[in-house]
Amino acid sequence: MISDRGITRLREAAAWPELDARYEITNVAGHGGMGTVYVARDHVLDREVAVKVLDLADRRGSRAARLAREAHILARLDHPGIVPIHDAGTLPDGRAYYVMKLVRGRRLDDVIAEGRPLAERLDTFARVLDAVAFAHAHGIVHRDLKPENVMIGAFGEVFVMDWGVAHEGSGDVEPVVVGTPGFMPPEQERAGDAVDPRADIFALGSLLQHLAGDDAPAPLKAIAAKARQTEVSARYQHVEALAADVARFRNQDRVDAYRESPLERAVRFYRRYELPILLLLAYIVMRFVLMVWRGI
Amino acid sequence: MPFPSTRLSVVERTRSSDEETRRIALATIIEAYWKPVYKYLRMKWAADPEHAADLTQEFFTTTLEKDVVGKYDPARARFRTYLRLCVDGFASNARKSERRLKRGGAMTLVPLDFETAEGELAAIEPAAASDVEELFYREWVRALMERSVDDLKRFAAESGRPVMFEVFARYDLVDEPESRPTYTEIARMLNLTTATVTNHLAAMRKQFRKILLDRLRELTSSEAEWESEAARLLGPARHR
After folding, report:
1. pTM of the entire structure?
2. Partner residue opposite A31 with nearest CB, options B206, B223, B236
3. Which residues of A95-123 are buried (b: 16+ CB within 10 A; e: fewer)?
4. Which of A90, B4, B77, B172 is the S-S candidate for B82 at Cβ 3.0 to 4.6 Å?
């Protein structure tokens, strides 16, 4: 009898891609919705790369078309937060593939679980916003932003991954629902509805909720809530607007999404100007002590 | 028997007017399903080994052609799911009538080695046993893999290159990664060059994929069902 581990091994053997001599597959890096990512050695440039290969060559070609579209989108998006693509093609058995930079690191959901400081998590979020804003400027909506699709490299680099269901402004609307529950907005949950960059803003709001955690300060929760508004027009209308509000929060300025009480404003004012306020108070106390001392 | 190039759905072939075609198609279904059915009856229906063996025999002998394949509608369910539901109905009826069944007929089509199947059942992980539907699927995959490996071995032998299968067996039929030899070690064992080992392995994996997908095509009733099963077999679900 072939054991369960033996079956897993045979499945891997059956899926193992037969690439040309340039790329030598060495390992499995991970699995996506429609394909497997392998680690390979590029013998021409003598470096390691990642190869994403479809699990199946579908007769209708819809999977191949989706992978090709992802490859073209990656080729268009030359940004430090988006993995560069090197090559693309079709295997002899009909499966489509593309070759990209190998990112060694961890997924954001694993990093979140470690409970890193809020400032560090918001720094990561700001870099995700940069990459997504860049894609939007090129007319591309990611449509599946979530912690599992963000990678943190060994030196803190942030990459937005998996553009397999990304939508180009000029492309047709698909008659199927794509995305992840909890991260996709209501308009994306309805198959056939057109989505625009504000769908990603909803997902970014969900991402911010995850990053900030349950004990996040109220203004930060309000930013996430505004990004996640059911009504499209009630959300931030551009990633830049969301990024600006997050930056204001980080600078301890008043954020657009949150109406603060006078006490909260005073506390925020104090936190922002803590050192000058303390110096001023120290000066006043010292003057008072001097006056009293001279009076005696 | 020459190696088959493209396989038609066995479900289609059971409806052929040619008796020999029908007989081979039924034998193929029995080959693919008897072990999953036996283990399913043991796990889900808590049938003792003898009773499970009787039920399995009876199911494939008297029920399969007329009541299972004959009434199958591909538009309503995939064949594997449908067959499992038929087994449930069959086992339920048998339990109600508390009848003991005679062994016999299926032996003429495919020999069923229940002792081996019983031994394999002992090796099934407890986690798998808790989900009988998943167990049925896994046993179905196991039977599919075993038959595909047999086909691959036969293919290599008929091509006059049994050493190619030896390379595949020594590398891809080893369960534990730590006990898997390197290409160089296999080359030394089989008196080949490392490059030849690499080429043989690539060729065998390519052929194995083809055989596996062909076998799968044989066990499914439509292109859509084949694609869905193949995606599950080779896609992310395999890593759960």
Report:
1. 0.77
2. B236
3. bbbbbbebbebebbeebbeeeeebeebbe
4. B77
